[in-house]
User: What shape does this take?
Amino acid sequence: GFYWWSHYPINFVTPSIMLPGALMLDITLYLSRNWLITALVGGGFFGLLFYPGNWVIFGPTHLPVVVEGILLSMADYMGHLYIRTGTPEYVRLIEQGSLRTFGGHTTVIAAFFAAFVSMLMFVVWWYLGKVYCTAFFYVKGKRGRIVKRDDVQRMVKKAFQRG
Assistant: This one.
């Protein structure tokens, strides 16, 4: 459980919120009924809405705090107390270092990279589901042979006919 994480601030241990992106992904699939459009548009929404969906969690880290006469943001203070690679202070150190070539737009670049990876993963998992989770029936034919049928909808309609 959360016993080992109990000494960390709640902002470090709360799970990420993926609900806005997942809702947009589902709405895109519902409206388009096309897996390719859903992968491109919905997967893009899923990746791009991940960071804004978590602003509620990260919002308090931007509040100012005075520590020993020095004005810091809460993110800087937590980054000095708890040295972890996921802290905002560590991300700021990276922005000052090797990612300087992006001109301070690391959040935007990371969001679009997340959108691209979400599109790619949607296509990969859709294909795996299509190949390995296809519904089929084994039906006894007219001459007694057992035949595999892939048309599930036709078999369901035939099985539940009224009359």
